[in-house]
């Protein structure tokens, strides 16, 4: 299991605390330092079952600069969104946990983090 975090994020720190409490085996990826490629973003979106606009942080300053809220949310715009997430990783919702069963969750709640742990344990 891998968790994409921003150490400054309270939801990320809470998810790490819960993973430790659950005795989960995981690796940490500080995605602002180790920026995911467009292919990695596509792969995590597939695992999440979401579209790039579903994991975009539209309140970030860079999102406002880009006018992200006004971008189309359709198949034709999908690659533009993925490129923006790769170029500006602050736009990626966090934390994202990839479970060992091939799925992933956005771990913003304790329930989502526990779900990822359960999926990883089979």
Characterise this structure.
Pfam families: ArsC (PF03960). GO terms for molecular function: arsenate reductase (glutaredoxin) activity. Keywords: Oxidoreductase. Belongs to the ArsC family. This is Arsenate reductase family protein. The longest helix is centred in the first third of the chain and has 12 residues, at 10-21. Strands 2-1-3-4 form a four-stranded mixed β-sheet, sandwiched between helices. 42% of the residues lie in helices and 11% in strands. It has one domain: Glutaredoxin (3-Layer(aba) Sandwich), CATH 3.40.30.10. The protein is of the alpha+beta class. The protein has helices spanning 10-21, 38-48, 61-66, 78-87, 110-121; strands spanning 2-5, 27-30, 96-98, 104-106. Strand 1, helix 1 and strand 2 form a beta-alpha-beta unit. The chain has five helices and four strands.
Put the structure in a nutshell.
This protein has 122 residues and is an alpha+beta fold.
């Amino acid at each position: 299991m891998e968790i994409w975090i921003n150490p400054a994020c309270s939801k990320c720190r809470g998810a790490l605390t819960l993973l430790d409490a659950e005795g989960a085996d995981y690796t940490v990826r500080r995605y602002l330092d180790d920026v995911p490629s467009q292919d990695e973003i596509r792969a995590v979106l597939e695992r999440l079952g979401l579209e790039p606009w579903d994991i975009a942080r539209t309140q970030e300053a860079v999102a406002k600069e880009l006018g992200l809220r006004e971008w189309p949310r359709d198949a034709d715009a999908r690659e533009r969104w993925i490129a923006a997430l790769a170029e500006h990783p602050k736009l990626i919702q966090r934390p994202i946990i990839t479970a060992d069963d091939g799925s992933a969750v956005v771990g913003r709640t304790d329930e989502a983090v526990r779900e990822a742990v359960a999926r990883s344990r089979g």
